[in-house]
């Protein structure tokens, strides 16, 4: 249970992180605002730290100066009061307590003279505690002990909280120096210890010197510094919010025209050639909009010219093809008459008559292909959809090229058993699909004729398979193959890998181009793969139901490494091979391009030079 909860939490976290990354990549305004805030936080933090340090230093320096002035005033007052008193006589403790009380009272009285802390504006050090020590010269004697030896020369007497004075501070005072130290002392009326500035100095009397220590709590400075810190934090927060708002507004003024330009460009790319950007003002964005509008107008004009030229060219081709049919029919009739009347013993005349009939057949086929290409280019082609057995369509296509198979002695192996059971039937059931049988048969006829032309008399394999949403027909030859980069060119009109190579099928050079357009009409794919001396593979993938979107193909495009078994010339039904069930398509719902399933099949990788592969949709 904990494992499942952890997985769900990890998945939720990954989704949120992915959404944040997508938002970060797609929103320039967000990036600018967050970058501005990040840099502002650094700047505000540095400035706040500097200001806080400067203020704290000034507070401490002012406190220390006032404390030194107050300590000097207190020392002078004590020296006047203790000028005739010997602290080594009996009753020194009472004298010290009395003097210390009067010193503390005067220190807290802002209206009295002499020791009044308000008598000098520069000596306003605030409330303080005082400690008087009259003792031995040995640091570390017990404070507050009464003299037990006559004269008490080596006994220390103190008044006030002498226990808080550390030996490190008393040593220089005993030597007659002024000393200061910062301590943490639990003062009267304070729940917790507070930082305290301690100032110590010697005081001359009628006998030996006394040690005077004044303790100045820094609680007021602490409160002042806390107030400064809270003020700086509040000001920093307000400043960051203002900076975020300002950067957002400024960035929006720049990003909004860019977004409008992107939207206009997308609509223009979708075919709305009249889309233009609004022009406001004379700034850089306005100049960009004007330049874009001029570019769009120029592209629109050129596209219209190309469309008109293309329409004129298609119409010209169609008209020429139609006009050539009548003279072609007349020439064919004359050629047939000549061919029938030629003397069989006249080999030259018979050969010429036969060549004339063959070329007329090829010319007629070329005219038919040109008419078909013209209809496809003009968008006038229509599908005659029927629910047919695709295996039967493949057989009819194979029968149409039987004469080529017999002439070249090429074995044609047919594997028309459906390997998939995703349709709910048993293996071997016919593959039923909603297609135009005439166009599908023409595609397969062109693929078979092309394979025979380039198969070098080696076996040609035709395989049919289907899954729950698509069917695939693979035609593979073992001939000269394709060089790298040629797999994407085989569907070009009148393209030939080797112009000097003779076509046995008498093709027109438009067969594969028409086949590609027929596959697109069905919403399918026509793909090619080839490698030099390993042959070529053509795969036709069509949806079982018209209008459904293809995501995977039931058959791999890359061939297996094993060579085909020897077969006699002719058309044969090959033994069914063992297929591999494909995993379900990765329907991520992103609306992207359909994915090929070749990588999911356990096909061996091609050699180091894999030849060329193309996916034409």
Automatic annotation (TrEMBL):
Main location: membrane
UniProt xrefs under InterPro entries: HAMP_dom, HATPase_C_sf, HATPase_dom, His_kinase_dom, HisK_dim/P_dom, HisK_dim/P_sf, MtrAB_MtrB, Sig_transdc_His_kin-like_C
UniProt subcellular location: Cell membrane
Its EC number(s): 2.7.13.3
Residue span of region Disordered: 570-617
HAMP domain ranges (all copies): 252-304
Keyword Transcription regulation: no
GO molecular function: kinase activity
Domain Histidine kinase: 319-546
Low complexity bias locations: 570-581
Listed NCBIfam families: MtrAB_MtrB
Reactions mediated catalytically: ATP + protein L-histidine = ADP + protein N-phospho-L-histidine
Keyword set, alphabetical order: ATP-binding, Cell membrane, Kinase, Membrane, Nucleotide-binding, Phosphoprotein, Transferase, Transmembrane, Transmembrane helix, Two-component regulatory system
Residue stretches spanning the membrane: 30-51
Official protein name in the record: Sensor histidine kinase MtrB
Matching Gene3D superfamilies: 1.10.287.130, 6.10.340.10, Histidine kinase-like ATPase, C-terminal domain
CDD domains referenced in this protein's UniProt entry, alphabetically: HAMP, HATPase, HisKA
Gene behind this protein: mtrB
């Amino acid at each position: 249970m904990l494992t499942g909860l952890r997985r769900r939490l990890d998945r939720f976290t990954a989704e949120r992180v992915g959404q944040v990354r997508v938002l970060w990549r797609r929103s320039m305004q967000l990036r600018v605002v967050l970058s501005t805030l990040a840099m502002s936080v650094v700047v505000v933090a540095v400035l706040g730290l500097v200001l806080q340090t400067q203020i704290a230093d000034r507070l401490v320096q002012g406190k220390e100066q006032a404390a030194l002035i107050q300590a000097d005033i207190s020392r002078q007052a004590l020296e006047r009061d203790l000028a005739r008193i010997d602290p080594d006589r009996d009753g020194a403790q009472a004298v010290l307590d009395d003097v210390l009380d009067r010193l503390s009272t005067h220190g807290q009285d802002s209206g009295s003279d002499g020791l009044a802390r308000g008598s000098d504006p520069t000596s306003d050090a605030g409330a303080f505690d005082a400690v008087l020590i009259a003792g031995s010269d040995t640091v570390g004697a017990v404070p507050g002990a009464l003299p037990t030896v006559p004269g008490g020369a080596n006994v220390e007497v103190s008044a006030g909280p002498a226990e808080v004075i550390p030996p490190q501070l008393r040593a220089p005072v005993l030597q007659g120096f002024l000393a200061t130290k910062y301590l943490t002392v639990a003062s009267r009326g304070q729940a917790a210890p507070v930082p305290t500035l301690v100032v110590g100095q010697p005081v001359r009397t009628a006998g030996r010197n006394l040690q005077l220590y004044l303790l100045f709590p820094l609680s007021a400075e602490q409160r002042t510094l806390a107030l400064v810190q809270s003020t700086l934090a509040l000001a920093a927060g307000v400043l960051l919010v203002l900076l975020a708002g300002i950067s957002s507004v400024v960035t929006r003024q720049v990003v909004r025209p860019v977004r409008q330009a992107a939207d206009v460009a997308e609509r223009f790319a979708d075919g709305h050639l009249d889309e233009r950007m609004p022009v406001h003002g004379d700034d850089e964005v306005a100049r960009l909009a004007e330049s874009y509008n001029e570019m769009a107008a120029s592209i629109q004009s050129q596209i219209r010219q190309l469309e008109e030229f293309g329409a004129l060219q298609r119409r010209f081709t169609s008209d020429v093809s139609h006009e050539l049919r009548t003279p072609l029919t007349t020439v064919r009739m004359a050629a047939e008459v000549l061919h029938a009347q030629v003397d069989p013993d006249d080999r030259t005349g018979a050969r010429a008559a036969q060549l004339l009939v063959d070329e007329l057949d090829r010319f007629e086929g070329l005219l038919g292909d040109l008419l078909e290409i013209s209809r496809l280019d003009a968008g006038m082609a229509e599908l005659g959809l029927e629910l047919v057995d695709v295996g039967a369509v493949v057989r009819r296509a194979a029968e149409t090229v039987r004469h080529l198979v017999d002439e070249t002695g090429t074995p044609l192996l047919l594997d028309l058993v459906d390997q998939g059971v995703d349709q709910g039937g048993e293996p071997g059931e016919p593959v039923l699909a909603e297609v135009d049988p005439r166009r599908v048969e023409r595609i397969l006829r062109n693929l078979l004729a092309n394979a025979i032309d380039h198969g070098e008399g080696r076996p040609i394999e035709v395989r049919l398979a289907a899954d729950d949403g698509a069917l695939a027909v693979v035609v593979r030859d073992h001939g000269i193959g394709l060089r790298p980069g040629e797999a994407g060119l085989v569907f070009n009109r009148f393209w030939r890998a080797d112009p000097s190579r003779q076509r046995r099928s008498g093709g027109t050079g438009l067969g594969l181009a028409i086949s590609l357009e027929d596959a697109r009409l069905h919403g399918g794919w026509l793909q090619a793969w080839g490698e030099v001396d390993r042959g070529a593979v053509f795969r036709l993938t069509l949806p079982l139901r018209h209008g459904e979107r293809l995501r995977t193909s039931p058959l791999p495009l890359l061939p297996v490494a094993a060579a085909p078994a020897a077969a006699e010339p002719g058309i044969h039904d090959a033994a069914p091979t063992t297929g591999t069930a494909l995993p379900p398509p990765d329907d991520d719902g992103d609306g992207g391009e359909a994915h090929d399933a070749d990588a999911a099949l356990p096909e061996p990788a091609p050699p180091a030079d894999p030849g060329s592969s193309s996916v034409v949709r």
